[in-house]
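Readers of this paper often ask what the protein records in our data store actually look like. Below, we set out a record of this kind in full and without editing:
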Amino acid sequence: MAPKTRPTAIRRAVLATTICALAAVPFPALAVTNCEGLTLYGNAKNEGLCRTLSPTTQNLWVCGLTDGATDVHVTFNRGTPMHLTVRINPGNPTCEGNTPIGGAFPGALTMPGAPANICGVDPLNWLTRLNAVAQMAAGGSTLCEEPFRTMIGNGRMTPADAQTYINQCRNGEAPPPPPACP
């Protein structure tokens, strides 16, 4: 019968290797919640910071911040943490990069470890603009739904596209059973 010390030694070596590997991996920044991201998008579109807002039926939910040869946008969905992306010449990118966005909306978004620039664009300038977005009062709805309802009324978003966001607000922090977003 083989001695029991050998399997124990192997387990200890594997455990030590795993601990060392995990220690080398930085912890991600506190992620922006889905509800805060949805609420940010609605308010940023209402204020005109988001020039475009994709329907949530797309794979990624995109707030387009610029038009033209320099594409700057914020992206997230239920499986993808929020991040800022910069692309030069979006159709055939000559430069592309991104940085994660953490923290909380309103006014406390962060970009820990963000580079000084991405393709010549200062990401912290965009972070300042995102943090300046005011949160609309709930009115007759929730904080998450209200900006999308307002956009329907002022013609800034089609009812169908706005409804995709309202549905996500109602789904809250899915997977089910989630409470609806505040």
